[in-house]
Amino acid sequence: MADERRFLGPPRRTPLAAILAAAGGDGGGGAAGRVFEGVAPLDTASPAQVSFCEGRAYKDALEQTSAGLVLVAPDLAGFVPAGSIAVICRDAALAFGRVAALFHPVPPPSGQIHPSAIIHPDAVIGEGTEIGAGTVICAGAEIGRNCRIGPLVLLGERVVLGDECIIHSHCSVTHAVLGRGVVLHPGARIGQEGFGFNTTADGRFITAPQLGLVRLGDAVEIGANSCVDRAALGETVLGPGTRIDNLVQIGHNVRTGRGCVLVSQVGVSGSTTLGDYVMAGGQAGITGHLKIGSKARIGAQAGVMNDVPPGIEVLGSPAAPKKEAIRAMLVLKRLGSDSRPAAKQKPE
Amino acid sequence: MADERRFLGPPRRTPLAAILAAAGGDGGGGAAGRVFEGVAPLDTASPAQVSFCEGRAYKDALEQTSAGLVLVAPDLAGFVPAGSIAVICRDAALAFGRVAALFHPVPPPSGQIHPSAIIHPDAVIGEGTEIGAGTVICAGAEIGRNCRIGPLVLLGERVVLGDECIIHSHCSVTHAVLGRGVVLHPGARIGQEGFGFNTTADGRFITAPQLGLVRLGDAVEIGANSCVDRAALGETVLGPGTRIDNLVQIGHNVRTGRGCVLVSQVGVSGSTTLGDYVMAGGQAGITGHLKIGSKARIGAQAGVMNDVPPGIEVLGSPAAPKKEAIRAMLVLKRLGSDSRPAAKQKPE
Amino acid sequence: MADERRFLGPPRRTPLAAILAAAGGDGGGGAAGRVFEGVAPLDTASPAQVSFCEGRAYKDALEQTSAGLVLVAPDLAGFVPAGSIAVICRDAALAFGRVAALFHPVPPPSGQIHPSAIIHPDAVIGEGTEIGAGTVICAGAEIGRNCRIGPLVLLGERVVLGDECIIHSHCSVTHAVLGRGVVLHPGARIGQEGFGFNTTADGRFITAPQLGLVRLGDAVEIGANSCVDRAALGETVLGPGTRIDNLVQIGHNVRTGRGCVLVSQVGVSGSTTLGDYVMAGGQAGITGHLKIGSKARIGAQAGVMNDVPPGIEVLGSPAAPKKEAIRAMLVLKRLGSDSRPAAKQKPE
Fold it and tell me: How far apart are CA C277 and CA C331, in angstroms?
C-alpha cells in the first residue's frame, strides 16, 4: 500500500455521513461521526478503510474482510462480518466509485500551459485548459475549456476538442472533431489515413483519396495505442459514450452508435456500422462493409464475416449464433476427447 | 460536409476538360466548359460535385445519385441517371483518385524546419525537406530531399531515408534504411530490438545479439502503431510497394517481396519469408521460419503454421487450403446446427 | 553488410584466446593468436568472422559455412567444415551472445542529460543516467543510476525506476514502480487507466476507480507499443525476468510470476494471474479472473477461458489440452478433406 499511496497522495479523511450521502445507501446507524481513512479491496482493507463487494463471486472475501465499512447489495448484506458496517446500495460498484472520489478527489485541470508547449498563434485554447510539456498544437486547432492535454501530444491543424476532454501523453489527433469529455489514453492515434488503395495496370498500389475525418461523440474513451482512421470520404464516427480498450483498430468510415464497448485488440474493418450498445470481446475481428445491430454481442476472438441482427450473440471464427457455436464446440470437443483414434470415427 | 471542408480547405473549382484529362475517360460531350466544385460519395454528392462508382455493389446508389458527374466503368454506364454526366473509365477508382487530387492537391513539403526540432549537426537533411516541431534527428542520419517529417518523431543515429518519404508524428526509426517515398503513419516503430533471447542454466533470459537492421523498399507504407523489428543478424526487409496496415507486428529477420499487403493486426514471426504480392487478412498470424510463396492469400484470423505454396489461399486456425477449410467449417456448422443433442451424433 | 556496419560501427578485432574465454568453450588448438573481425550468420560469414550453429535444423548451413570459427554444440562438431575452427560449447547460442559482445560492446550510458529534456526540479536522477532529447520527467520521479532514457519519453509524477533501466523513445510510464534493469521498447505504455466502468440506471458508463499502480520486477522487458494498465486497486505485477513482446495487452490487476514469456499481440484480461515461467504464443488471448499455473504453455492464437493447471499445454480457441485439441483438429481436417460432400457424412 505504501507505493499505492505514493501515486495517490494521502487520502482525505472522510466521515461516515459523507460516505452514506455519496453512496446513496443505508446503514451504519449510530456511527455517523466515525471517520474513515481510505479505500481498499476486501482482502486487504483495514478497519479504518472502506471496501465494497462486487457480487456473489466475492462472498468468501466478504465474509473474511477486515474492512471497517463495506458497500454491499441487499442480497449480500447478511455476509458482512460483525465488525464491519454494512452500507446497503442498489449498485455497490457505482456507489464505491462515488465514495472513492471522496477519499481521492481528482484535481481539476490546472489551467497552466507548460512553457515548452508549442502552440500555434492561430490555435484557440479554452479557459482553464491545461497543456503539458513538449505538446504541439497546430494552426486553427480549437480546444475547449477545462481540458487536460498531457505532455508530448500532437493536436493537428484545425482539430476541434469539446470542453473537458482529457488527452494523455503521446496521442496524435488530426482531421478530427471531438465532443465534450472525450478521453484518449496514451499513444492513441486518431485521424490518420486509412488503409485504402487501388492497383495500377502494372501492379503498383496508389493510395485512394483519404479526405474525410473522425468524429468522436461526447464521453467517448479510446484506449492506449488504439487507432481510429479518418474516413476516405465523409466521416468515421464513434457514437457518444462508446468505450474502446487498448490496441483496438477502427478502420476508415466505420460508424458506431452510442455506448458501444470494444475490448482490447478488437479490429473493425472499413465501412462497417455498429448500432447502439454493441459489445465485442477481446481480439474479435469484424470484416468490412457489415451491419452489426444494436445490442449485438460478439464473443472474444470471434471472426464476424456477416451482418449480425440486433440483440444477437455470436461466437467463434467464423462467427455463428451462440447456441449453434457452442453446440459445434461441444461436438468438436467430443470428437477430440474420444479415446478411439480419429481415423476410426468415420461413419461407415 | 462543413467539418470535412474544415480539414481540406475549399476545393479548387475544376472544369470538365481537366477532369476528363485526369480521368483518362470519355464523356460529357458538349459540356467541356462546365465547372465542378468538389468530390463526394454517390449518396451525398450534389450536382456541382464529382463522384464515382466502385462497382456493381453500388448500382443502387449510382441510380439514385445527384452527382453532377460520375466516373464509372463501361458496364455500369447505363445506370448513371439522366441528370449526371457519365465519364467512362476502365478503372473508375483509380481515375477518381487522380480527379480528387485536382480538387484537393496535396501541397509539397514546405521545406521548413521547425525551430524546436533538435537536429544533430552531423545529420544531413536534403533540400526541400520539412521537419516538424519537437522532432529529434540524431548524429549521422541522412534524410533525402522533399521529405515530410512530422512533429515529435525520432530518427535515430545513422538512419537513412530516401527522397520524398513521409514520416508522421510520434514515429521512431532506428537501425533502418528507407527507400524513396516510404510512408510511416503515426506511432510506427521501426528498427527496435527483436524478441530473441537464450536461457541460462539457472533459468535467466539473456537477450540474443540484436545487431541487424531494417530495410524498407521504395514506396513501402507502414500503418499507425505497427512494429518492424531489426534483424538479429543481417536484415529485416519489406520489399518495394509493400503495404502494412495499423497495429501489425513484423518480427526480426522477416523478409517480404514486393507488393505484399498485410491488413491490420497481422503478426509475422521471426525469420519467415514472404514472396511477392502475398496478402494476409486482418488478425492473421504466421509463425516463424516459414516460407510463404508469391501471391499466396492468407485469410483473416488464419493461423499459419506451415509453408504455403505460391498462389494458394489458406483459411482457418490452423490454416488449411481454402477448399478444405471451408468444407471443415461447413461440417462443423452442420454439426452445430443439428437439432439433435450433440451426444447422440456419435456414430454407432 | 555495409549497412549493418553503418549502425554497429567497425567491430573490435578480437583474438581467438578472448573468444575462447568468453565462449567458455574448447577448440582452436594452436591458433590462439589468430584474430577475428566480426560476427555473421553461417550463410554469410567470411573466414575472418565468427558464427554459431543454433541447432540440428541448421546442419546444412553449418556444413557449407565459410566462417573462420563456429561455436557449436558437441553433437554437431563433426559437421564443421575443415577450414573452420570448431569451438565446442554446451550452449552455442548463449556463448555466441557473449562473443558478439566482444566485437560489438554496448557502450555504457553517457551520463549526459540533453539540454532539451524537461526535468522537474523535484525529480531525482541517479548518477550516470543518460536522458534523451525532448524527454519529460515529472515531479517526484526517482530514477536510478546508469539508466538510459531515450528521447521523447514521459516519466510521470513519482514513478520509480531502479538502476540500469533502459527506456526507449516515446514510452510513457505513469503510476509505476520499476525494478533494476527493466527494458521498455519504443512506445510501450505503462501505468495508464485500465478498462473498467460501471453502468448507471440510465445506461451511461462511469469509470470505476483506477487507483492502483504497476510494478515491474527486475529485468522485465516490455515490447514496442505494448500496454500494461495500472491496477484498479492494488497492483498490476509482472514478475522478475518476465519478457513481453510487441503489441501485447496486459489488463489491470494482472499478476505474473517470474520468467513468463508472452509473444507478440497476446492479450491478458483483467485480474488474471500467471505463475512462474508461463509461455503464451503469439495472438493468444486469456480472459479475465483466471489462474494459469506455473510452466503452463498456451499455444499461438489460443483462447483461454478456463484456469490452466501448472505444466499443462493448451491449444485452440476455446483452448483445450494439447492432446485433445490436436485430435479435434485432425478430425476436423479429415472431415474437411473428405472427398464426399459434407451433407453425406452424417451418420445414419
Answer: 32
